[in-house]
Specification:
Number of helices: 12
Radius of gyration: 22 Å
Order of helices and strands: HHHHHHHHHHHH
Shape: globular
């Protein structure tokens, strides 16, 4: 009887070790899949193609317009971070998302396959599609009436809503000082190209793989906020200028979902990668199993 008990215990241990190996293998494969997507993103970022018409229009727009737009983006980020988080949280069910993630993680521990890991990504992507649909309607709707600058607060709010929901789907808090700084860094990097993108992306990857976020010192958050606002203003200058023109503004407003997709594609990849590296570094347990 004792020998049978020992054999059963050994079999239980072997079963758990085998399942842990399966979990590790699934995580590694998912990391490889994310890195392939990152490589495509890198190739596009390092070979930017600025449309000729956009370059010509930028030359004709007064410097004051850029300055005004940059201030508008700064103010939008400040307003949403300081006063908008509570409003944004009313637009989704935070506890439900968190509970769904915990259930999905347990399913992964039990089944130990990539399919369960992918479901986390699929749920995050599904929520994002709804946000992009709203961004499309909002941008075009205001563009028809030539409403440009007021649209920026709504646009930034929708961007941060998408970021917050993505963070929740992958189990990260979005309201701490270090996470807010990280969010701004990701948003800045998503809008860059060339060597600027390479440097910013390398910094973010280091934070993601090392699982260490920098707690902002005095003035760090404000400086990063201005840098992020600046790249948004520079890249969206022509389109937001056009959006301020009645009827023609529909073209500028129609760009909102394109920029939303561009930012969120980058943000989702980084949160997904960060989640996978975190899982890879954790001790995998199988609660509720006995042998």
């Amino acid at each position: 009887m004792k020998r049978c008990g020992r054999n059963a215990a050994i079999m239980g241990i072997m079963k758990k070790l085998s399942r842990e190996e399966s979990c590790r293998a699934a995580i590694k494969k998912e990391i490889q899949a994310v890195e392939k997507k990152e490589e495509k993103l890198r190739q596009r970022a390092l070979k930017p193609k600025q449309p000729g018409w956009k370059q010509e229009l930028e030359k004709k727009i007064p410097d004051q317009v850029y300055s005004t737009l940059e201030k508008a983006f700064c103010k939008a980020f400040e307003i949403v971070f300081e006063k908008g988080t509570g409003i944004i949280e009313k637009s989704y069910q935070k506890e439900t998302i968190q509970q769904d993630r915990m259930i999905q993680e347990y399913a992964f521990q039990v089944k130990a396959n990539r399919k369960e890991l992918k479901k986390l990504h699929q749920k995050a992507a599904a929520a994002d599609m709804k946000n992009m649909a709203f961004t499309t309607v909002e941008g075009i709707g205001l563009g028809v009436f030539g409403i440009g600058l007021p649209d920026i607060v709504i646009f930034v709010g929708m961007l941060l809503k998408g970021v917050y929901e993505t963070a929740l789907h992958y189990g990260f808090d979005y309201d701490s000082p270090e996470e807010r700084l990280f969010i701004l860094k990701m948003m800045e990097a998503s809008m860059l190209d060339g060597e600027s993108w390479r440097r910013a992306n390398a910094e973010i990857d280091n934070l993601v793989t090392e699982q260490f976020l920098v707690i902002p010192g005095e003035g760090d958050f404000e400086r990063q906020l201005r840098r992020t606002a600046s790249v948004f203003a520079m890249d969206m200058l022509v389109l937001k200028f056009i959006q301020g023109l009645p009827l023609a503004g529909i073209l500028g407003g129609a760009a909102n979902p394109l920029y939303y997709h561009k930012v969120m594609k980058y943000v989702q990849l980084k949160y997904r990668k960060r989640y996978l590296y975190k899982k890879d570094g954790e001790t995998i347990t199988f609660g509720g199993e006995n042998g």
